[in-house]
């Protein structure tokens, strides 16, 4: 089982290296929106500071959503996913590996680059650590939830809009608590309650999402 999971993770990372556009797109989208936002509301530092937490989190959510549809698409098209479904090993573990690879390629880079984007929006330095921690927790939750939508729609040729309709309602609580944590930190208050809620969401998602993803993949493969 360990070799299988390592092979799945290595394969996803190698495919990402061969298709760098899919990895770079969310980062470019994040950068463009952050650069254009000050042009829309004006360069007033107070306004930028006020809107920065919500803007950074909304853009991170949408950037993660851009890459969700392709989480299982390539392996479904070439038959690899069907072989995983038919394998004797539990499917939820490879499913969790796919989600982890997605987070490594989207959520982690967004988190690491977020201080640069935060400075562009005049976010106070005291809130940058909270921003990174909230994104570290929140983007993992977004990847897990997105994996459920991707698994249910992987058999559809144009499932992007359907994925959005399925998972955005579940993204909203993550957005609320993630942006609230950064807002509290920017105001000089403790963001620990919001971060604890994000940690609880992540624990719940890790415990339940892999089984839901596995069930969705079986449904999609059988329907296909």
TrEMBL record:
Keywords: Cell inner membrane, Cell membrane, Cytochrome c-type biogenesis, Membrane, Transmembrane, Transmembrane helix, Transport. The keyword Cell membrane applies. Signal peptide: none annotated. It is a multi-pass membrane protein. The chain crosses the membrane at residues 26-42, 54-72, 92-119, 131-155, 161-183, 195-217. Its main location: membrane. It is found in: Cell inner membrane. InterPro entries: Cyt_c_biogenesis_CcmB, Cyt_c_CcmB_bac. Required for the export of heme to the periplasm for the biogenesis of c-type cytochromes. Belongs to the CcmB/CycW/HelB family. PANTHER family: CYTOCHROME C BIOGENESIS B-RELATED, HEME EXPORTER PROTEIN B. This is Heme exporter protein B. It comes from Candidatus Litorirhabdus singularis. The lineage of its organism: Bacteria, Pseudomonadati, Pseudomonadota, Gammaproteobacteria, Cellvibrionales.
